[in-house]
Design brief:
The complex is a heterodimer of chains A (about 170) and B (about 300).
Chain A: E1 10-11, H1 27-38, E2 49-52, E3 57-61, E4 73-74, E5 76-80, E6 87-88, H2 90-96, E7 104-106, H3 109-116, E8 121-122, E9 130-138, E10 141-151, E11 154-157
Parallel strand pairs in A: 7-9
Antiparallel strand pairs in A: 1-2, 2-3, 3-5, 5-6, 8-11, 9-10, 10-11
Chain B: H1 14-22, E1 27-31, H2 38-47, E2 51-54, E3 61-65, H3 73-76, E4 80-82, H4 89-94, E5 101-104, H5 111-119, E6 125-129, H6 133-145, E7 151-154, E8 171-177, H7 198-217, E9 219-229, H8 238-247, E10 250-253, E11 262-263, E12 267-268, E13 271-272, E14 281-283, H9 285-288, E15 293-300
Parallel strand pairs in B: 5-6, 5-8, 6-7, 8-9
Antiparallel strand pairs in B: 1-3, 1-4, 2-3, 9-15, 10-15, 11-14, 12-13, 14-15
The chains are: A alpha+beta (about 170), B alpha/beta (about 300).
């Protein structure tokens, strides 16, 4: 088995059988996570590859690249792994969240504004606890805003500080 | 404003030019078609009380009536990226196709690289390179907010760009939006000319020549290379392209865009440039009420 090299991009193995780096997520596990948790069809990601750079940080990429590759970025970060509960990124939720149909919490205008500002709020939610995609209605459609953590009647905004905005 | 006096012989209506340079610039934005089309973006902006006018030369270019374009849902969702109206031009002139391998030699902070990603349908490889790590972090932030998945970000000196760590060894197209003396941004940054010197113009022109030469070398025959700056100095514009025309196998192409412009200059302070440089375009602030800009389109020959 090999070590995870934090400073370079390594393409995720398709399945556990092909894994050479301990603890590395597989493409299959990533697709299953997005499908099981958020109902995102695996076909959504058919033409994308997944990469690890840094401990557990997974990137989604549409272009061509050898593996490994030492550069600054390949596509965008999408998921934090190597922890008990995997956590999608805000920007991934915005980019691909339209494909989700479960664990999506719809916020009203006031709640959406608070969420974008990074505020935690008390909310009713009948579904699973844990990471949810928060969405709201804008310009004729439901649009994902980001990722929230729902626990004990409270939705915590996971929008990173630098992305928070007062709208 | 004094340094701009040197351009009096080049500009037909110099009074109108000077007056335009003194007017502050309006706020413009580009629709990020990776996330939303112009209609939905305009609807979202109007719902936030922002006045929007679509530029008649391109449907993805918007003029906004607001002081804080970042505090809108359209911005938060990455439907729009705030950038100067003419800054949207070079990627549109390059006009890459889905699946293309595209090089953005001086890509930070990423407005044009993410536009290139949108133009290839976010399906292809846009290598967004810059030599400045701090500015690359701004590029990465913008790329993620705009949801660009086709970008590979590299940190190299574009003059010696290497294909190490890439899956291919030539590009279909390249954009060189070069670092420059920025004279054309005077409406946005009124102090931009305070540190202007002719020596700086000449030294930055040397860097520009190195970057454009390498971009032409790195592009396949038949591919397009677009060179742009936000400055008026012929030394940094026609002078750079003239140098590369002589040194590399490439030729000028006409630019078809529905904006008022002047042709590239072919004689400046006693130096003559290749006559084909008339096909380059100069956009002066009084032409379209924008910042100043220069664009040249090259085709690489075998």
């Amino acid at each position: 088995m090999a070590d995870n090299v934090g400073q370079r991009f390594d393409r995720l193995p398709s399945t556990a059988d092909e894994r050479t780096v301990p603890g590395r997520a597989t493409r299959q596990a990533v697709l299953e996570y997005f499908a099981d948790r958020f109902g995102m069809p695996s076909e959504t990601f058919e033409s994308y590859t997944f990469w690890e750079k840094g401990a557990g940080k997974i990137w989604i990429y549409a272009g061509e690249s050898p593996s490994p590759a030492e550069l600054e970025a390949l596509g965008m970060t999408c998921l934090r792994t190597r922890q008990e509960h995997w956590k999608p990124t805000t920007d991934f939720a915005q980019r691909f969240g339209r494909a989700a149909d479960s664990c999506v919490i719809t916020l009203d205008a006031e709640q959406a504004t608070a969420f974008a500002a990074g505020e935690d709020q008390s909310l009713e939610w009948d579904g699973d606890w844990g990471y949810l995609i928060a969405a709201h209605d804008i310009a004729g459609g439901l649009e994902p805003i980001g990722v929230g953590l729902y626990l004990h009647g409270e939705l915590r905004s996971m929008v990173p500080k630098g992305r928070q905005r007062t709208i | 404003m004094e340094p701009l006096e040197r351009y009096r012989p080049l500009i037909d209506d110099f009074g109108a030019f000077q007056a335009a340079c003194k007017r502050p610039l309006g706020i413009a934005a580009r629709v990020n078609t990776i996330k939303a089309d112009p209609d939905r973006t305009i609807e979202a902006l109007r719902a936030d009380g922002v006045g929007v006018e679509q530029a008649d030369w391109h449907p993805t270019v918007l003029r906004l009536e607001t002081d804080s374009p970042g505090s809108t849902w359209a911005s938060f969702h990455g439907f729009v990226h705030t950038q100067e109206e003419v800054s949207s031009l070079p990627a549109l002139v390059l006009d890459p196709s889905p699946g293309d391998r595209v090089f953005d030699a001086c890509a930070a902070p990423g407005g044009k690289a993410t536009q290139l990603a949108a133009l290839v349908g976010d399906r292809g490889t846009v290598v967004a390179n810059d030599n400045n790590l701090g500015r690359l972090s701004a590029l990465r932030f913008n790329a993620e907010r705009l949801g660009a998945t086709a970008l590979a970000v590299t940190h190299q000196d574009a003059r010696n760009f290497s294909f190490n760590d890439l899956a291919f060894d030539e590009f279909d197209h390249a954009l060189v939006d070069a670092p420059c003396s920025c004279e054309g941004t005077i409406r946005k940054n009124p102090t931009t000319l305070e540190e202007w010197t002719e020596d700086h113009v000449h030294s930055v022109a040397g860097i520009q020549k190195g970057i454009l030469r390498r971009a032409v070398q790195a592009t396949r025959p038949g591919g397009t290379v677009v060179y742009s700056t936000c400055t008026f100095a012929p030394e940094e514009n026609e002078g750079v392209v003239d140098h590369v025309l002589a040194a590399e196998s490439c030729e000028l192409q006409a630019i078809d865009v529905d904006l008022e412009s002047a042709p590239g200059v072919i004689e400046w302070q006693g130096t003559e440039y290749d006559p084909s440089l008339e096909q380059a375009i100069r956009l002066y602030p009084h032409h379209n009420d924008t910042g100043g800009f220069f664009v040249a389109k090259l085709e690489v020959r075998a």
